[in-house]
Amino acid sequence: MEEIPVKVAVRIRPLLCKEALHNHQVCVRVIPNSQQVIIGRDRVFTFDFVFGKNSTQDEVYNTCIKPLVLSLIEGYNATVFAYGQTGSGKTYTIGGGHIASVVEGQKGIIPRAIQEIFQSISEHPSIDFNVKVSYIEVYKEDLRDLLELETSMKDLHIREDEKGNTDGVSPCCPGWS
């Protein structure tokens, strides 16, 4: 069987101020010196990477994303998939604080990756680069590319070839290839 190079990371965010004010309790704990978390009293889960509530944007990026960006620059495809319930910290990890005024240390994955990719491109003027980016939102089983205004309200479909390889996400439009 072919190995699928997928790595899974979990990041645990601290309680928000309003959660602490309402006496909410942390229900996910990191097992020290392991890549495991405990949910509730005894449900243990193992991941490739575990980031506790005090982890930084820099740690997450350098550990999980920087290797993907370096591979991307060498010509490989890369995908980062953020999953979690509303309020779990996906937007903060992916984008950071408010994008227009984010402090350097709070920059998320996207601004860091963009900076690194285009810095590398500028350092290699003799190489032709073709950069294609999608920012797909999956919400209630609907797919939407947040960077494409023309497709933001159209149905998007994940295409697979006869071998089950994903060929990309396309709008449901006649003549799309």
UniProtKB/TrEMBL annotation:
Keyword Nucleotide-binding: yes
Signal peptide annotation: none
One annotated Gene Ontology cellular component of this protein: cytoskeleton
Binding positions for ATP per the UniProt entry: G84, Q85, T86, G87, S88, G89, K90, T91
Record PROSITE patterns: KINESIN_MOTOR_2
GO biological process, one term: microtubule-based movement
Gene Ontology molecular function terms on file: ATP binding; microtubule binding; microtubule motor activity
UniProt entry tagged with the keyword Nucleotide-binding: yes
Intracellular or extracellular location(s): Cytoplasm, Cytoskeleton
Keywords: ATP-binding, Cytoplasm, Cytoskeleton, Motor protein, Nucleotide-binding
Gene3D superfamilies assigned to the protein according to its UniProt record, in alphabetical order: Kinesin motor domain (3.40.850.10)
InterPro entries: Kinesin-like_fam, Kinesin_motor_dom, Kinesin_motor_dom_sf, P-loop_NTPase
Pfam (any one): Kinesin
PANTHER family per record: CHROMOSOME-ASSOCIATED KINESIN KIF4A-RELATED, KINESIN FAMILY MEMBER 27
Family from the record: Belongs to the TRAFAC class myosin-kinesin ATPase superfamily. Kinesin family.
Name under which the protein is recorded: Kinesin motor domain-containing protein
The species this protein was found in: Pan troglodytes
